[in-house]
What we know:
Blueprint: H1 2-12, H2 15-26, H3 32-46, E1 73-81, H4 105-114, E2 118-124, H5 151-161, E3 167-172, H6 175-183, H7 189-213, E4 218-223, H8 237-263, E5 267-269, H9 271-274, E6 282-285, E7 289-292, H10 293-301, E8 302-303, E9 313-316, H11 318-329
Parallel strand pairs: 1-2, 1-3, 3-4, 4-5
Antiparallel strand pairs: 6-7, 8-9
Amino acid sequence: MVRRFAEALRRMIPKDFMNRLVRHFLAGAVVTSLAVGVFLTIRTSDAPPASAASGTTTTTAPTPTPTPTPVTFSGFYLAVGASSSLGFQPTGIVHHNGRRTPDGYANDLVLLEGYQGVALTLDQIGCPGETVQTILNTRVADHCYSLPETQMTQAVSFLQSNQSSPGVVTVDLGFNSIRLCLWAAVVNQACVNKAIAAVHVDMPKVLRELKGAAGPRVRFVGLEYYDPFLARYLNGAAGYAGASESLVAMNRLNATLQQVYLSAGVSVANVPALFDSEITTRVASTGRGVIPENVAQACAMTWMCYTAPFGPDDHPNDAGYSLIAQAIAAVLPKSW
């Protein structure tokens, strides 16, 4: 598992971002053990192979593996949301450019917590395209469930069945409510205003239903969002304005989500902070010249700067999902 995670980092992260990612990993004690394991795995895989022509026999030490932490706490992890809650990434297949993967933030969070002795059993019930509004709709069928079953009925049933158990619920809703407003080159401000107003009205309803079904030992974490549309900055003068407008819109959405989450007693995962969304210091980015750091991060942690057939796609890549997992882990208890 650790080797797979390390190789994903090596594939997805340009060298000029490795130091920042390691800094993020080392920022909290919750990921220290994993960071050491990843470092050792990368260092070992970077070592040159022994030369058979040398006439000598070289013994290669096995890759060090972090010592597992004894399990001190067990609970469930229910991931509620849209496609990102399922680890979606592009496939490169025309007309089917996306699939669920086992490498999303929910999977990474289970790994991170496992290194702290916390054993979480993961249930992912998300539905691609889900919005704050559609999850509340009990009359219209979606492509994931057949009425009368919906993602919400699944979540409520699961929580009611596990009321005596401890656990974690992540709520990943809101991005799809605003996504189409930002997809065009020019941000649709009227659409943004309407979407954010709807999130402000409907997200409290979502939280009330979920929390009302949950037992007293369940911790809720709501996700804020990075801005993949910062990648527009690479499109020249017109792109600068589009990137700036998208960040303003995403900041408004995040401010609304934060207010709703905190009012409901839900912890907030500050995802934008780990994506450096507000940092505009100019940095050198491989193949892109000198650009703002938040733009470079959007390119390094998502598929938005890729060309067809894999992009542009606003989902995180493996490295981006790992950062989201860290943002969630940061607001979970250090000791359960």
